[in-house]
Amino acid sequence: MGGADKGLVVLDGIALIEHVLARLRPQVGEIIISANRNLDRYRTLGHRVVQDDAARFGAFSGPLVGMLAGLRHTCMPWVVFVPCDAPALSADLVAMLASATGGVHPALASCGGRRQPVFCLLPAALEPRLTAALSNGERRPDEFLRTVGAIEVAFDDAHAFSNINAMEPDRQGSHD
User: Residues 93-123: pLDDT tens digits?
Assistant: First the structure.
């Protein structure tokens, strides 16, 4: 992607994040967008935007820093996380993850035996553990989710987890 902001890459005439938001809105009560650049552009989408703490943990800290921002800024007991570059997001992602948690365990999606750790549901109470993990150098969502005992929830549609890296080049447009 050459450093492009993936959420703002255009697919079929629409920024990737707008595809994701359209599929996520019916599944949740509130959306918080965690970003580390282009904050003003993301604010135009009509949702609260929070800046992640990449400065504290390093410029390329990965998705865990965005997850931490979400956990810190929510007033909800549970938070679902999805990447901004997965436009075919499952319409029942949140319901399936939530039904598996039993109100206790974090959950992550899997498909075809492959874990999809950036599609997950976490209790907000994990914020101190995630802060500690990042402070100790952890940058892999899958590893963090293993340490907190996340339950794997199997999905059938692999396309729902496709991201910009897996898309057909002719469907990708320019950076918005």
Answer: 999 999 999 889 999 999 999 999 999 999 9
